[in-house]
Design brief:
By secondary structure, the chain is mostly helical. It contains nine helices and no strands.
């Protein structure tokens, strides 16, 4: 992969300039190398791409890394709603395959239900991390024998956390009544949702959908 060294460093420097105080170019370089080492397919695609396209791809990866770092900063500073530990807890609770009317018997909230399902749907559309999440937390057959597989699972949870935070921020921006307001839909309100308003398609957010 040494043939990508100059382009990776150039793309990282390009992206870091747009994210001052959030991430350094060296951090972006490291994350891009990890991504390449984890994916022989990505290496092959870069080798086959023309120079301009290859640089665009590397910049896009760099921006994804910077966005993840930004979300981590927001979490540390108290401006983010979900952390990876909470997301793992939600996944282990079975919320991903629960129906909305099941919430009355669960500790999780409707807000968490909506954010998880919308975040997971985004993941399915944009990467293979959705399949990783499904295999681990629903099917229970994701292989974690190799370090690269364990790292991929960790990154999948991080990606889902980012997606859920973006979903939550968007919903909050649309529905907030004023500065500093953050609404969480309670389980009591979830109990009032009529089954007649839902159909069976709402029951399981299956990966195959």
């Amino acid at each position: 992969m040494i043939e990508f060294k100059e382009e990776v460093e150039r793309a990282a420097s390009y992206v870091a300039r747009d994210w001052p105080g959030v991430i350094e170019a060296d951090d972006i370089v490291q994350e891009i190398w990890i991504r390449l080492m984890e994916s022989p397919k990505a290496q092959e695609s870069l080798r086959e791409a023309e120079s301009a396209l290859r640089f665009d791809v590397l910049k896009r990866w760099g921006k994804q890394v910077a966005s993840q770092y930004s979300n981590s900063y927001e979490l540390f500073s108290g401006n983010s709603y979900y952390g990876t530990d909470r997301v793992r807890s939600l996944l282990k609770s079975g919320l991903l395959t629960a129906a909305r009317w099941d919430l009355g018997e669960m500790n999780e909230t409707l807000t968490e239900f909506l954010d998880l399902h919308e975040g997971f749907d985004h993941l399915k559309r944009t990467s293979d991390y959705g399949q990783v999440i499904w295999d681990e937390y629903v099917e229970g057959d994701y292989s974690k024998e190799k370090p690269s597989e364990r790292m991929k699972l960790s990154r999948a949870v991080t990606a889902l956390t980012d997606a859920m935070n973006q979903t939550h921020k968007r919903r909050f921006a649309e529905h907030a009544e004023g500065p500093g307001t953050r609404k969480v839909v309670s389980n009591e309100k979830a109990r009032l949702i009529s089954k007649s308003d839902l159909n069976e398609d709402n029951k399981v957010n299956a990966f195959a959908q």
